Structures are given as C-alpha cells and as structure tokens.
C-alpha cells in the first residue's frame, strides 16, 4: 500500500477512504458487507466472509446476481494466490443443431431457458468453504438465510434497478415460464420501492439446503431435480445430468507486471485477459498527469485494441486459437502499441505470433484476502426462476457464437466467453490486495482505469473509484460520465473520438478495493460511489 494511497481526487467524492486492521469487507450493498463482517467477528476468515457476503448478495441485491449465478474468485492465502473458475458449461442438449431447429441461427436469445448454462455459484461457495474456510457452511450462510426468511428494506439504487428489470420482463416475459419471476420479484404485481420490505421464503429454504448439504442439493439432489423438471416442462436444455457433471475448477491466475506491480486476473474463459493486454500496451508509455487529453486518448486506444482481440479469441482456454502467452507477449504488445497515433482509430483484431454483476472483496487479520465476483448477467439474468426455490438462473449462453469459424462457437459441455472478472494486485511477492469493477463489458475497462489511478496517479482506493470513468462501446464511440471534465471531452473529440455524455451512472460499473500495508497490517478500503456500497471494517 505505502505510497499508492496518498492522494485524493476532486471529482464525485461521496465517501472517505476507510481503514481497519482486524478485518474488512467491501461490496455494493451495506447489509451484505455487514454480514461478511459478522462472520469475521464470529471467528471466520476472509474466505468465510466472502462466502457469507456472496450468499447475502443473492438476497439483498437480486437485480445483479442470484443462486443461479456463475462466480470467479482470486484467493490470497498463506502467501500464495489461487484462482477459482466457477462458471458453468453449456448443457449437453444445447447444440448448434438444436439452436437452428429452434430458429436461432444468428444469435442466442437473451432471455428464457435457452441461454441458461450450468450455474457455478453454489459450487464456488461449497468449494471455497471446503478448501479454505474455518467455519461450517451452516454458520456462514446464516445471515443470508435470515434476510431471505425475514426480509430486508430495499435500498435506493437497488430499487431503481429492480424497477428497470421489472419493465424489461413486462415486455419479454409474457409466457408462462416467466410467471415465477413475477411471483418472486414482483409480489402484488409491482417491484418493491426503496424502503419496502422484501422476503423470499423459497430463497431461504434453498440456502438452507445448500448449507446443510454443502452445495450437493443443487447439483445432485432435490434442487437439481426441480431445475431439471422445470427445464423439461418449458423446452429448456439443462438437465440434472449436466448439474451432476459440474465441478468448479481451480486455475492458475495470469498476470502482467505494470510498473513494478503484478496485476492478476483469472485466465480465459474470463475477459480479464483484455485488461492485462491493455496494461501491457500502456506500460510502454509515460503519463505525466491523469487529467490530460493524451492520457485518456492512449488509455482508450489501448483498450480498443485489447477488446478487439478479446472478442475474437477469448473462450474456454483450450479452445482458443491463440495462447494467453502470445496475447500478453512483449512482442505483440509492441506491435499493438505502434498502432496508437494522435487520432482515434477503428480497432481490428491483430494476429498474435503463434507460440450485468456483484463484486466483493474481503481481508482478515491473518493476511488472507479474497477477490470475488458473481453474476446472473444483464441484471436479473434469464428471467427464469425455478418455482418455489428463489433460484434465479443466469443467461450466460447468450455470449456463445453460432458462427462455426469463431473461437467461442457453441459446443455442448463448453464454457462460453465470460464478462465477470475479479482482480488482484501484488508487489515483490506480497499481497497489495483485491480489486474489481463489475458491469458487463465495462469490467476490464474499469480495471485498467482503477489500476492506473492507483499506480500511475497515486490515488487512494476511494479516490481511484470516485474518479470519472469512460466506456468504449464500439468503433470510435466513447461514453463518459456526466461529470467528466468538458475540456477533456472536447480534446478527445478533436482527436477523432465520438464522445457521448451519459446521465446513467449504472453503465460505468461498481467497484470495490481493499489494499493492505504489509508493514503495519493496516487495511485501506474504498467502495463505489455509484451504488449503495459499504466498506465494513473492524
């Protein structure tokens, strides 16, 4: 931590940085952060706290995730970093031929049972608990069960996105298989408003089953049978056999060294590779100041180049036509960097040399730290809730390609390109800490901006999150926040960027950061000003 937390940034600051030394939880919903801290106080470690927070978020922020989510984690424990990929595979019945027969020759539908792949979040909780947790899962999931059983008051930002999700499914969810979504999330025919109490007995019962069976009920037991029966009834593809075949996968995290710090991400099928490739390009430049047109111009151009490669090549790693090492090689970074000039470019994928979401982070007094992310995708996900269970299913299959020439072409049993990515920072073999910015394709862009704010411009965690953000969307179009400085926006326009100002803060991601000072053990945390987040410290 040392010098990288020393400065503030004058824009959009709503909170102060938070310090603690015995434990810390940062996430987008205060009740979930407090649930994680409660588990730390009960003797749990950072891993237990992460599981408790994640489970609680399925209750208190269902607009972004659910029991039917996928998840990824980076876990720092005993001086080593471990990666967990808990994304799920395509059901074996979900074939290109089945898609063609169903009339989906060009693109997957966004909603309904068709894009549902095997959910990995319950498996992630169970696997993390088994391998690194200290407390029983029944104790760790107790706060989430309590909120689901007895209800909680809906927070303001949550209410806004709940209403937005309701409006989506009012239009697209008219067939019978969507009825359980409305029964669960719009009781009385309308979404809850800020301050309303919302509860889900079915959700509580499901969490209780997961706690008592250590996740097995979801993949091999009664819950798996309910998912199977519902899918068969309404023409879905997921079966109990797909759930039974699922196991979370421990993976080797990937990294780039950026100005003396190692920035870590989960390897593909996640898009963390895009953030690392952009940083690999950017480290060849020197930046004199944050608020200069040239700084933003180079950031945007590097991100465009990295994204064009990511969208072409990223899928399950064994299915990629180029390797991660090739995409992160110095040779390839140099060739991509050379394309960046004074004018905005329209990005194209290169040829390397051959060779929607909740985020949380936790830390404990022992030095353990977790970077964890889970998501349904596109808000509420597929719009499918298994009746009586509270299980809201993700729609990750939408990202599969139906083009046989594409790396991410649909294959039964394959994991698709995934947007959710946890990040982690180390220096000289010691943990600095976890970070993340959730929000679809904003995530690698948010990672790059937060890391540069931290390392290049010496902003503390809260200031790094407060700073105005930009979001490249396509070709030369860049969306910026309403408070993005006008002189910088106009300067970028003169370089050929099409700058669009947005009043919707939700499109720019929601991040959390915890940094650790390894000399003193002091934790320093920041939380997203664009949501109802909280840093709970001890």
Automatic annotation (TrEMBL):
Its EC number is 2.3.2.2. It is an enzyme of class 2 (transferase). It comes from Halalkalibacter krulwichiae. Keywords: Acyltransferase, Transferase. This is Putative gamma-glutamyltransferase YwrD. The keyword Nuclease does not apply. The keyword Repeat does not apply. InterPro entries: GGT-like_enzyme, GGT_ssub_C, Ntn_hydrolases_N. GO terms for molecular function: leukotriene C4 gamma-glutamyl transferase activity. It comes from the Bacteria. The gene is ywrD_2.
